[in-house]
Amino acid sequence: MRPLLPTLLLATLTLAQSPTSQTPKVEIITSPSSGYTYHGCYNETTNLPDTAGVRALGEGAVLVAPGNMTVETCWAFCKSGAGDSKGGTGGRFKFAGLEYARECWCAQSISSLSQKVADGECNLPCEGNTTQACGGNLKITVYQAGAAAARVQRAAGLIAAGAMVFTLV
Hints:
By secondary structure, the chain is an alpha+beta fold. It has one domain (37-168). 14% of the residues lie in helices and 23% in strands. The chain contains two helices and eight strands, in the order αβββαβββββ. The chain has helices spanning 4-17, 71-80; strands spanning 26-29, 36-43, 61-64, 95-99, 103-107, 116-117, 139-145, 165-168. It has a six-stranded antiparallel sheet with strand order 3-5-4-7-2-6, with helices on one face. A hairpin with a 3-residue loop joins β4 (95-99) and β5 (103-107). The chain is globular and about 35 Å long. The N and C termini lie far apart (46 Å). Residues 1-16 form the signal peptide. Keywords: Glycoprotein, Membrane, Signal, Transmembrane, Transmembrane helix. InterPro entries: Kremen_rcpt, WSC_carb-bd. It is a single-pass membrane protein. It is found in: Membrane.
């Protein structure tokens, strides 16, 4: 008969090394009534050489909501124009972007230094709704407002369904 302790330790070690969970799936969502449509995943530009810390969505407004950020929260903030250059709620920002699971960035343009990257690089779940994609580490999930928001963009790796819900795998 085998000693029980070494067998239990071996079983525990085997389970600890086995992949028991897959990478969580997050969704890129678009709601026609929000006025914003998914525009893509972009790199943040603050760490690029010789950029003086310019952000991908700079000269706008930012909302940081640890534990509470959702895509809808960001859309509402950017749609209100909160913190616009006039210091009020003068109108909606053209771009809304989510980064690092808790940050919402609003701007009228995307920096020319920022480049579109694979959608799968924006894979951090929002802290307020872990099924939604909220950018990544130095990656920003960007939504665009206005007439361009009426177009549905096709992207590799995304599956459109119903009210335009995209799932990153």
